[in-house]
């Protein structure tokens, strides 16, 4: 809006259209798999809205990065798992898919670490600002390592199983 590319009314219209499409998708998926789909959808919607919208504005209170972790993790991975398997998402089934949530949060942490020097104390308080630059870098490096180190170990062993699940089409073709 600041650049003049879209007006407030245009942005509100786009948001309304996208949310209406998401509502239709939620109804279709709920009809196919039951009420738990609504819990995943509402959880994602509420956290996504609270990320930037008043009164919470989670991203301005150092809660943006943990919110991304939850939305890209238990809600998205868990929701897809439930939809495909019709059973609750369990932590033990999280080892490979949860790298996705760490990767998304790692990118966000890195982006916010770069902005630390220009962040005014009253502006936005991201998690890296709260942690401080040195600690935020260590946390981000740890998340990055958690994402990519297992992939390197799998490749070193000549295994490609890190890229396949027992339910993927490429696994079925290789049997």
What are the defining features of this structure?
175 residues; 0% strand; 67% helix
One letter per element, helices H and strands E, the order comes to HHHHHHH
Report the portion of residues in β strands: under 5%
Shape: flat
Q: Can you give the mean pLDDT?
A: 81
Please give the number of β-strands: 0
Radius of gyration: 19 Å
Report the structural category.
Answer: mainly alpha
pLDDT < 50 stretches:
166-175
Count of individual helical segments: 7
The main β sheet shows up as: none
State the end-to-end CA separation: 53 Å
The protein's oligomeric status is single chain
- What share of residues is helical? 55-70%
Provide structural commentary.
The radius of gyration is 19 Å and the shape is flat. The protein has 175 residues and is mainly alpha-helical. It contains seven helices and no strands. Helix 1 packs antiparallel against helix 2, helix 2 packs antiparallel against helix 3 and helix 3 packs antiparallel against helix 4.
